[in-house]
Here is the input.
Amino acid sequence: MAYAGGESRRGPVTMGQANMIRCMLRDEPEHINIHDVWPVPEGTRTESAIEALRALAERHEALRTTFPHAAGDALREQVVAAEGTFTVTVLDHEELPDDAAGYADSLARGARAERFRLDRDFPLRVSLVARSGAPVFAAMAASHAVTDVSALAVLKDEWLGLLAGETLPPPASLTPLGLAAEEASPAGLRKSDASLRYWERIIRTGPQAMFAEPGAEGTEVRTPRLTLRSRRAARALALVAERTGGMPSTVLLTAWCALVAHRADQHACVAAVPTSNRYHPRLARSVNTLSQDALLSLDVRVPSFDALLRKAWGAALNAYRHSQFDAVALWEMIGRTTHERGSRFARDVVFNDVSTLPAAVATVTSGSDSDSASGEGGAAPEADAPTGPEPELSWGPDQVLPTRVMTFVHASGPLLHLSTWLDPALFKRDEAEAFLTGLVRLLEAAATDDVPLASLTEVTGVRPVERGPRWQRVDGSWTSPPLVAQALSEALEGLPVHVTADDAAVTDGNTPQDGALTAYIAAGDAPLTPAQAHTALMDALPGRPGVLAPRRYVIVHNPPAEADRSSAWLRQQILREGTGRDRDVT
Here is the structure.
């Protein structure tokens, strides 16, 4: 299918494009491409559906964009074509399976598995699923280099409008090239620098992982989807908003953060909030990939839900304002900061509220380092409203994700419809269901009165994790000195290691104290330095959120007879000691 009539342009890539291209070149395509299924209105002719797609290609520069580059070179330029072609595959069936939508979804998922050639491919792979010549669904995979969940929602909304005979107004949002120019301006560069400073403060002082606890292992987790639909919850959410004067989206975010932090026994909820970087009107309906996280850090050490709600709006707005950054510079900063802190930043928690997007989306992707993972989105049809016991919970397919907890809000009224993926090593099926039921209970309790956060276990039925006596809070993060000793010993090929926490690092009641870990290493005749020990442990940290690097490394020759006693190690002759943070020391 040919399109023509656009303007040929070229220029630098946006920060979001650079971020996603980096991920697309590194990750498996089924993990980074996205997909969607659009129901075709009854009575639509195949030719009309294809013609509407052509109109979208001519309307949006992103759909006419490629990224030419020489082999081995970084992708820094985008080229917008004035004309070109794309392919639509028509799959006509005499009869469709009973679950025709599921069949269409499987086609779209399958199309995700093939890489997009960034230098030449049209960014949508579209199949029209038809019954006896009448299209029923448009199943598509999309390149994350030029689209994200919100962009697909905009395209779907406009496609349905075109099929209904509407005349679309001219696009009012920034084009990718327009956004790139804005980002490269002095004001844009200052904004990016401010975002890096904001992220660095959180990564330097916040918990290294929200779910640092027994069972939390690995960097990717195969997780089943759990979906909640509830009119009860939607009514409660509306009542909380009315009682407090808060926006329903902020109320829901507050309740979710409170419950996550309560279950993880953390003093702050640190979460990626991806779609929120469209908060500016010029970006709200942009067909582009704005796939950069807004990083929320919400301190939950307040007495009640209402007090937390008052903090949440400012914390969320602060996150949204700092969601534009140079992704390469961001990860360089994260690498430098975590090396100095002795941690690995874990993007454990994702909250993506797509309920305000212009059309329902059913996109699923695992996401990437600083792209939020996508999920089923959009408003739930009335036919999907619960007809049985409330809340309605249903399990869906598994997906490999680089997160511990990921939630997508599809609709907040007239029913609350959300999907969540909870690490099965941390949440058994009954615990996962109890977590979502607890969210509903919290909203219902807050609908009539302020809820003391100290009563969350009683109100929601969700209990904080039990880590055991060997876990301690050190430098704002939960860690286990025995696990640190084991990981460091393994990284040093079996050398004896003992790790202890300063007395000040042990929690006193609910108040975490400043402190640090000290590692004692019996190196024998090996010329081991603190820097070598620290580098070896840092290399072993990914996938071990319960391990925090010691602040100090003390190297001795032989282990003491009482190798489990810190006082015995202190009596050994010290060969070398230091923080190990100087990368130039070998």
